[in-house]
Structure formats: structure tokens, C-alpha cells
């Protein structure tokens, strides 16, 4: 591997030994609840599918991600990683990973923009043969600034909706020059991670950060996609009144038929107590909305980038701004109203000071898919041209089967007659 001038986490911490110990303790806990990665890890240790490969990763560096990173390293890879959000890294986990002889971690919490991109470049300096991204920043940096490395890259995998959107846009412009799996789009990922994971962990993070209850609150969920569905359902389950805002007519109708109030944000702004954006879009809550909001509202975002709530406009409107609690910034308006922003408008389930990200079981599924996608792209590289690829369904099923077995859940199989019937077209009435 090429050396990088940017320091790994180990040389950036005062007490690296105790950070490593604490990080390892958290990883051990996560491992106990990740039977899928456990099974995949055993296979990788035996088969060494990544021997001689260099994997570059930009992910939320916390305990569950660390189990994935180690699983890839123990399958024979040299891994270099950094964060995919300035606030979502857990330094102790990053330090524990950096202690592994085949892993270099540059991830650190609280980096500024310049350091964030320097750390990405440090990962790229390892000249990865495979990339694993959450949000596509690594793929973008390689294509924009290091195109000479592309020939050496076999392929990649992308974790989240926003990253897959960006990759598909790049692919449509013929600008994506190696194959990347859309891990986000598999059933085993998005039906669990985006829905249950984002729902549970966003609400838990907001409640823990504010010490406030959901019961009786009016919660405005912007976007009724996979993440929005989870947030709305879990908020309703905790006795909140849920309002949904949407721009897509079928999703607005779906929310209406689920029993939620659906209305434009301009109306929701006047009645909401808590706002959670989950659109993957920009400027969802803007100046006009801030002007209509009640005193004391909570503003948060669960989408990938911090552009859903227009904090610049809010800052312009504010006559004062101060930290109301750890992870909560109050913006005071000239009429005395205070609008409280959680985790700087960055994805709230990962970036608030006490956030832990999705529940472990959910990430076991998402990262199980990531792991087998890396195996697949290396084993069958000839089968994948440059561009975005759906994850082969048999890989998704493989992960579901491991999980069902670990949960002790048995299920039926098709009989030969049923299989034949399902595959035929000539059995009418
Ligand atoms: P999705 O595409 O299923 O849903 C987004 C929804 O937002 C769509 O229904 C769309 O019509 C709607 N929307 C777009 N612009 C809007 C606007 N201005 N107002 C109201 N609604 C609008 O995407 P998904 O999977 O729900 O992901 C959403 C975001 O969350 C993405 O940025 C994704 O990367 C991120 N994400 C975050 C996670 C977390 O841990 N916080 C986990 C998984 C995804």
C-alpha cells in the first residue's frame, strides 16, 4: 500500500490505548448480535476471497461498520477507511480498527470540510481495487481527481439511497467507469434498514438528545419513502400525531390511506412540534416555513446530506443562536420564538452526540449484503460492465436464509407441482 501524509486515527488521539479497548468492547457486543456477518466471516477466513485486494471504504465508522471492516480484512484484504459524514465517526471504534494489521482508519469525528476530503484522499492513496461507499463521496473523488486509478478498480458497492441516486445520475451521463452494486436497493437492505432502522434510531436519538416525549406531539415527516414510512410508523406507535408531506402523488396517497394527515409543508409548518426530513432532496424546510413555526419546535434531518433544512436561511432570520443542550442548537427569532436544530441538521440517528445509528440486527443484514457483494464483484468481475448493477437476487436470498436460520425460523418450500405451476402460462380456468 502507498503511504499517505494524512495521519491515521491512532496518531490523532491522546490516549489511543484506552480508546482501542473501549472500541473493541463495543465491537464485541455488536458481533454477538450479528449472526450473518459471523457466518460470512467464517467462510471468508477459510476461503480468503480477498487475498491481495485493497478495499477503500467511506462509511459511518461505528461498531457495526467495524464488524464489516474486520470481516473483509479477515478475508484477506488490506482495508483503508474513513468516515462518510463529519459527525458520525466513533473515535474509539476507528482506533480499534486501526490497530488491526490489515486496516488503516483515517476516520475521526468532528473534522472540518478540508480534513474530511483529505481523509478521503488518504484512502484513495492506498489505490483500492474495490470501493465501498455510503453516499458516493469516494467514487466521486476517484472519478474527479484520480481517474488514472480506475483501470485498477474491479468494482464497488454503495450503501444508501442518495449514493445510488448519484451513481445512477452518473451512469446516465456515461460518467461511471466501473461497476457498482446498488446495495441500498435490495429487499434485505431497504425493507429493514431504511424502514425499521431509520425509524427506530432517528426517534431514539431525538428522544435521548432532547429528553422529550413523543406522546401527544405533532410530528411532521417530510418524504414518505422507505425511511419516511419507518419514521411515521414508529412515531405513531409512540402516540404522536403524524403529518406527512410529499411531492410524489402515489406516496402521498399511500400515506393518506395509512391514516396520516397529508398536507403541504407550508401548512404543516404551522402545527408541527417536531420535524424530521427524510427526502434525500434539498431545501425541504426553508425560510417561509421557519416564519410560520411555533415557539420551541424541534428540527431534524434523517436524509443523507445536511441540506434538507435550510440552516443558512434560519441563521439569517435568527437574532441569537446558542447551544440549548448537547446536540441541540437554539435559533432565536426577533419575535422571541426559539427553533431548535438537532445535530446541525445532519442525519440525526448518526450525528447527534449520543447517536448509535441503526440497531445492530438491522445492520447485520445491510452489511451481510455488502460483504457478499464485494465477494461477487471479485469472483465474477467479467460479468459486470461499468455502471450501476442490481444485487443478484440469489445473494439477497442467501443473506435472508442465514438470518432465518439464526433466528430459528422455519418456512415452507415450493413443491415441484407448485414450482411448475408458477413457471407456466397455460393453466387457465
Ligand atoms: P426514497 O426515495 O424511498 O424516499 C424519499 C421520498 O421523499 C420520496 O417519496 C420523494 O417523493 C420524497 N420527496 C422528495 N422531495 C420531497 C420534498 N421536497 N418534500 C416532500 N417529499 C419529498 O428514499 P429513502 O430510501 O427513504 O431515503 C431517503 C434519504 O434517507 C436518502 O438521502 C437516503 O440516503 C437516506 N437514508 C438515511 C438513513 C439513515 O440512517 N438516516 C438510512 C437509509 C437512507
UniProtKB/TrEMBL annotation:
Entries under SMART domains matching the protein: AdoHcyase, AdoHcyase_NAD
Binding positions (substrate): 134, 159, 189, 193
Ranges of biased composition (kind: Polar residues): 1-13
Chief localisation class: cytoplasm
Record keywords: Cytoplasm, Hydrolase, NAD, One-carbon metabolism
Top EC class, one word: hydrolase
CDD domains assigned: SAHH
Swiss-Prot/TrEMBL catalytic activity: S-adenosyl-L-homocysteine + H2O = L-homocysteine + adenosine
GO molecular function (one): adenosylhomocysteinase activity
Domain of life: Archaea
Ranges of residues in domain S-adenosyl-L-homocysteine hydrolase NAD binding: 194-355
Job of this protein: May play a key role in the regulation of the intracellular concentration of adenosylhomocysteine.
Annotated protein name in UniProt: Adenosylhomocysteinase
Amino acid at each position: 500500500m502507498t503511504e499517505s501524509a494524512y495521519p491515521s486515527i491512532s496518531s490523532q488521539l491522546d490516549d489511543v490505548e484506552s480508546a482501542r479497548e473501549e472500541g473493541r468492547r463495543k465491537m464485541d457486543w455488536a458481533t454477538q448480535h450479528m449472526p450473518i456477518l459471523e457466518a460470512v466471516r467464517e467462510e471468508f477466513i477459510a476461503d480468503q476471497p480477498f487475498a491481495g485486494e485493497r478495499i477503500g471504504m467511506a462509511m459511518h465508522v461505528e461498531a457495526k461498520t467495524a464488524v464489516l471492516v474486520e470481516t473483509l480484512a479477515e478475508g484477506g484484504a488490506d482495508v483503508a477507511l474513513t468516515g462518510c459524514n463529519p459527525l458520525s465517526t466513533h473515535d474509539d471504534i476507528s482506533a480499534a480498527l486501526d490497530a488491526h494489521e490489515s486496516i488503516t482508519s483515517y476516520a475521526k469525528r468532528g473534522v472540518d470540510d478540508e480534513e474530511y476530503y483529505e481523509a478521503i484522499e488518504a484512502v484513495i492513496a492506498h489505490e483500492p481495487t474495490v470501493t465501498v461507499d455510503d453516499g458516493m463521496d469516494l467514487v466521486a473523488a476517484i472519478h474527479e481527481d484520480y481517474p488514472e486509478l480506475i483501470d485498477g478498480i474491479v468494482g464497488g458497492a454503495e450503501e444508501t439511497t442518495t449514493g445510488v441516486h448519484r451513481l445512477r445520475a452518473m451512469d446516465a451521463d456515461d460518467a461511471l467507469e466501473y461497476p457498482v452494486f446498488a446495495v441500498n436497493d435490495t429487499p434485505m437492505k431497504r425493507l429493514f434498514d431504511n424502514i425499521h432502522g431509520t425509524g427506530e434510531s432517528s426517534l431514539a436519538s431525538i428522544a435521548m438528545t432532547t429528553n422529550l416525549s413523543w406522546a401527544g406531539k405533532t410530528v411532521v415527516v417530510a418524504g414518505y419513502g422507505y425511511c419516511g414510512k419507518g419514521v411515521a410508523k414508529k412515531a405513531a406507535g409512540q402516540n404522536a400525531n403524524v403529518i406527512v408531506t410529499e411531492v410524489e402523488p402515489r406516496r402521498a396517497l399511500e400515506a393518506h390511506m395509512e391514516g396520516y394527515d397529508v398536507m403541504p409543508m407550508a401548512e404543516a409548518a404551522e402545527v408541527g412540534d417536531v420535524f424530521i426530513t427524510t427526502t434525500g432532496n434539498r431545501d425541504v424546510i426553508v425560510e417561509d416555513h421557519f416564519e410560520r413555526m411555533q415557539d420551541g419546535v424541534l428540527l431534524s434531518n434523517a436524509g443523507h446530506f445536511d441540506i434538507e433544512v435550510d440552516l443558512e436561511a434560519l441563521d439569517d432570520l435568527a437574532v441569537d443562536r446558542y447551544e440549548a443542550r448537547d446536540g441541540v442548537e437554539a435559533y432565536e427569532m426577533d419575535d422571541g420564538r426559539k427553533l431548535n436544530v438537532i445535530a446541525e441538521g445532519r442525519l440525526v440517528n448518526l450525528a447527534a452526540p449520543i447517536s448509535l445509528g441503526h440497531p445492530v440486527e438491522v445492520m447485520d443484514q445491510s452489511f451481510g449484503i455488502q460483504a457478499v457483494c464485494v465477494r461477487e464483484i471479485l469472483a465474477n468481475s467479467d460479468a459486470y460492465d461499468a455502471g450501476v448493477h442490481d444485487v443478484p437476487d440469489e445473494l439477497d436470498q442467501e443473506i435472508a436464509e442465514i438470518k432465518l436460520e439464526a433466528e430459528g425460523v422455519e418456512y415452507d418450500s415450493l413443491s415441484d407441482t407448485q414450482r411448475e405451476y408458477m413457471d407456466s402460462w397455460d393453466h387457465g380456468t
